[in-house]
Write a structure and sequence with these properties.
43% helix; Aspartate Aminotransferase, domain 2; globular; 4-stranded mixed sheet; 17 helices; alpha/beta
């Protein structure tokens, strides 16, 4: 069969609905300054879908540094990959500060979170090694695992009995191959908001001799001392062998980093193909990241404001009888029972009639007949935003239970 003919006839689990959903449920346009309130299709909406945890995206000090760096350097410098011609003292300084902040010997700056995490995992293992990973790991981690030429075993999400069973399998195999074991999990799972059981996982290290890779995209900047992340929060930062963090969440910019022992980082500098053969991060991104890191480390009010809002939101939702799962981070899911049709209709009602824009998650990310509304509180939200959202959710839940959202499989919104 012709490749394009196959693509035309099989658009994939998300793409099959693209005609009905594009521009509204998928690829929506949120416009205006990034804040708690933005514009969607010409209307003002209260936004709970932007990973601007600390409110730094539109902070005047950050914007001033970004603008000045763009004026001083442009978006082109430095040109070329870092190994060849793209190295600067500012890239090195950012890495040094990140390593110091994360209490690791060294750090390596990466162009993107998704690409960087995927490539770091692939670079660390050979075909003789075994990867053991959490079933709810982010797609970038799963894709990194898929690039691995050796064996990989998955354990049920945060289930330590399942985890040990896979460790036993991995240890038996590596005793034959002479390889090692890399355990992969998240600091904070970005969908449901629960933290990875890092403390429990670490307790198995002595017996099974594995190395631990933690993707802490949603923990970096939001939990732990000064935002040091889930490892610090759980008291096991020193036991994380490879710490991965992204700038796309709390720091509200582009880029990522990996922090570990010096010899591991040096190996990655020369072995991560996605970085060796990629252009260096532009100077305004690097200078801007330095400013954001400084503010994150020295201005606790941003994280305090985030948690004032997150605590009020989560407490208020629970008091109102909503199921928010096992979240112990700022990520706030709201689980409801309903069909795909009801999921689309409740989302449209929230956006069109109540002015609330939040993400909707349905099967296969959650079980069938489960609707997850995912809220991301930030430091720029207000307690009035929280109160209005909870009262609105009460009204929406009442409509859902009364069957008012039943209808076509994909609601029409045009």
């Amino acid at each position: 069969m012709d490749i394009f003919e196959r693509i035309k006839n099989n658009r994939g689990p998300l793409g099959q609905h693209s005609k009905e959903t594009h521009g509204y449920f998928t690829f929506p346009k949120l416009e205006g300054r990034v804040s708690n309130r933005m514009q969607f299709r010409g209307k003002d909406v209260l936004v709970w879908s932007v990973n601007n945890y600390l409110g730094l995206c539109d902070h005047p000090e950050v914007r001033e540094v970004d603008a000045q760096a763009a004026k001083d350097w442009g978006m082109g410098y430095p040109m070329g990959a870092r190994m060849m011609s793209g190295q600067t003292k500012y890239h090195e300084e950012l890495e040094s500060q990140l390593a110091d902040f994360m209490q690791k010997e060294d750090a390596y700056l990466l162009n993107f979170g998704y690409q960087g995490c995927q490539s770091a995992i692939e670079s660390l293992v050979t075909r003789n090694d075994v990867i053991v990973y959490d079933s709810e790991s982010h797609a970038c981690m799963i894709d990194g695992v898929r690039l691995h030429h050796g064996k990989r075993f998955v354990f049920q999400h945060n289930d330590m009995d399942s985890f040990e069973k896979q460790l036993i399998r991995a240890k038996k195999l590596t005793e034959r191959t002479g390889g090692g074991i890399l355990v992969i999990t998240e600091g904070v799972f970005g969908m449901a908001g629960d933290q990875g059981k890092l403390k429990e996982i670490v307790s198995f290290k002595k017996e099974y001799g594995f190395r631990l890779f933690v993707d802490d995209a949603h923990g970096f900047g939001t939990i732990g001392e000064n935002g040091r992340g889930a490892g610090d929060f759980q008291g096991v930062q020193k036991d994380i062998d490879i710490y991965f963090g992204t700038f796309a969440k709390a720091m509200a910019t582009i880029g990522a980093f990996v922090a570990a022992d010096e010899h591991v980082i040096d190996y990655l500098r020369y072995g991560m193909r996605s970085q060796v053969f990629a252009k260096s991060l532009p100077m305004p991104i690097v200078i801007g990241a330095l400013k954001r890191l400084e503010m994150m480390r020295t201005r606790p009010e941003f994280k305090d404001n985030l948690w004032k809002i997150a605590t009020a939101l989560q407490t208020g939702l629970k008091d109102a009888g909503f199921d928010i799962g096992k979240t112990n981070s700022a990520v706030t899911p709201v689980f409801l029972k309903g069909s795909l049709a009801e999921a689309t209709n409740i989302t449209m009602d929230l956006r069109e009639n109540y002015g609330i824009f939040c993400s909707i998650v349905v099967y296969p990310v959650v079980p069938r007949d489960v609707i997850m509304l995912r809220l991301i509180p930030t430091a720029v939200h207000t307690l009035e935003d929280v109160e209005y959202t909870i009262e609105t959710f009460k009204k929406a839940a009442k409509k859902l239970h009364a069957g008012e959202y039943q209808g076509e499989a994909i609601a029409s919104w045009s």
